[in-house]
Amino acid sequence: MMSVNNGGMRTGQDTAPNGTARASWERTNTMSNPSTPTKHLKSPKPQNAITIAVSSRVLFNMDKEQQIYEQKGMEEYLKYQIEHETEPFGPGPAFPFVKALEAVNTRLRELYPESEELFDVVLMTNNHAHVGLRLINTINHHRLFIERFCMTGGNSPIGYLKAYHTNLYLSADPMKVREALEEGIAAATMFNPPEKRTEVSETQLRVAFDGDAVLFSDESERIYKAHGLDKFFEHEKAHENTLLDHGPLKGFLESLGKLQKKFYAKGQRMDCPIRTYLVTARSAASSGTRALKTLRSWGLDTDEALFLAGAPKGPMLEKIRPHIFFDDQMFHVEGAAELGTVAAHVPYGVAQKRPQKKLAEENAKDSSAAAK
């Protein structure tokens, strides 16, 4: 099991089961004790829930099975899955994130027993139905609450994502992620977890976002790529009172904020099990005003905002310990992963139109101050 003592705002409560922290500790102990009986929970209606669709390859470690499929073909792959269907898959990169979603749901059900404003995780896979038994066995083994499956047999999941009112789609297939983004669905590509993964909180969901081309549009980044840093600063100064357009993950942040307010309404702002972060390479004084004003105009904010002025994001993320970090540029994703953070790539905006190697060279050349 992951350690509950992970730093952050609730460290003292997570480690000391006494006083006001006792209820929090008892909730954690109950959730992490496999012998604790649990009543059957009811899935919320899709139109009421915050739906997180995850592919089987990001929820679980299916590297060996994927290798069999690529090297030996579909029939051998299906044969192997059936022969090993009583053997559970190990956790994949999205596994701690999904566990944290369930921890938030536990708290919400305590405060609002009749509410359906909950996270609802849907397993979205292009696997054949024959693989379903092994997936079900794995979900039961790990004590996950996932009742909705879509096994599409190789067909595109996009139609199903829309039917479930999906708020976020996580997949290992970049083509499917791009297809989802083109249809207006928040999506990101996940990769194998870092070899030395940073331990994350079991009681507080932590989500970190990049700014431009993730929460916001890529308008400002286009200026930077086309005209350089000085023109970017000039543009931001001249337009600091002009709101940025929304990016692909704005809606997901909005959903997180909506749930946060349910905890605030019960006097639990300081004990909220959701915490959000803006982690951007923008400079605060020269280009941060517009970003913060845009968030405020949307009625949104992040619990913490880090303006790094071009400094690497990895060391800051190592301290934050998010369950997931979203960025549109692969060198930021890779830099985060090198220091143990599970990062997801959002293939959106102007950064996708240049080779990643060239982007990395540009970033290194101007690391003292970047557009994001």
From TrEMBL:
This is Cytosolic 5'-nucleotidase 1A. One of its GO terms (cellular component) is cytosol. One of its GO terms (biological process) is nucleotide metabolic process. InterPro entries: 5-nucleotidase (IPR010394). The lineage of its organism: Eukaryota, Metazoa, Chordata, Craniata, Vertebrata. Residues 1-18, 26-38 have a biased composition (Polar residues). One of its GO terms (molecular function) is 5'-nucleotidase activity. Residues 1-47 are annotated as: Disordered.
